[in-house]
Amino acid sequence: MTISNIARSYLLGPLCMIAVVWMGEAMAGTSECYAIKDADKRAYCLAQVKRDAGICYRIKDGDKRNQCLADIKGSRDRCYTIKEHDARKTCLALK
Length: 95
Fold this sequence. Notes:
Elements: H1 3-34, H2 39-50, H3 62-73, H4 85-94
């Protein structure tokens, strides 16, 4: 065995373990989201776990949808479209 093969075997094992654990956490997060009964809350949870802004468009309440999009995209422009004043101020303060 060469040094590169030894190094690869010692690095590949822990790297695979980290990948498996990370995927397990992601799957546990989505399964918890699917257990939520409220469709808007479930969509918000899935969007957060998967970091997918497309899921935010499933949310029927406009303010919550815009809050979700602002959280996922990390941009302030969606905060300005929130109609409820307190929620808009909170969204802008977090960005």
